[in-house]
Design a protein that fits this description.
The protein is built from two helices and 27 strands. By secondary structure, it is mainly β. The chain is globular.
Amino acid sequence: MVDVSSAAVDLATAARPRSGRQLRIEGHGYEAVIASVGASLRVLTFDGRDLVVPFDADEVRPGYRGTTLAPWPNRIVDGKYTFGGSEHQLALTEPARGQALHGLLAWAEFEDRLVLDDRVVLAAVIEPQTGYPFRVEVEVEYRIDVDGLRQTVTAHNLGADAAPWGTGPHPYLVAGPGRVDDWTLTLPASEVLTVTPDRLSPVGLEAVSAHPEWDFRAARPIGDVFIDHAFTGLARTDGVAEVRLVTDAGTGVAITFDERCPWVQVHTADNPGIDAIHRIGLAVEPMTCPPDAFNSATDLVVLEPGATHAASWRIAAV
């Protein structure tokens, strides 16, 4: 038996919060706290008002709340895919549904590249592993300016082979007092990806006009509608799409993103029987590709050796 004395413990590491190092940035009324585990957006406020569902620094991050999704967002069905003529099997990180969920970096510790008062840059490397034998460096920048908080995720293929790639964020937006049911949503999407009810595996792309419960092209209250779907066919202004969530008073939050994210996942955060978290925020996740893109190849980014790819989105108060 190896005797490890308390003196051998790295006190700095032992004292670090469960969600990692805490990096605070602020400006123009906005304040954000980034947790180094998963390069996660832990807190975002405007004039003291929450714009996302926060979590405590010394808390194991609840699920994927605020994390950075890479090298794929959403699900890979059965964790299986073929790329470059080779078959791959990923770990099933959503065991109840038998899916590989939200990439490989959600629980990775990111290192600091740059820390300023209004900007931080963190980085981590996805090392070749079973199911994803590619080496990709992922750099995540958070920057505050007068227009809100902008996050940019940049991938750099460090390996000798082309690599499949996709990314997105996982914030739970908060319009104000109340819950998802009480807020009004504007989602300028004309198409929805239908899914199986049990495993949420993709079925097919359909017009939202055929599913009026998910048609939020005209702003309307969410009510008791359940949503956990990817949307596309996004109307844009000057190339930018906006998903907006507001209270009856007209204040709230919006997330905007350009053509690098042709998809957005929306989820009403249903947790029946768990009142503390049931429908307390609306997950709005701009994505570079849809669920199961490693199999469908729809909007899948193929990172050639030495190539980079960047995508960004912005959260702002309304």
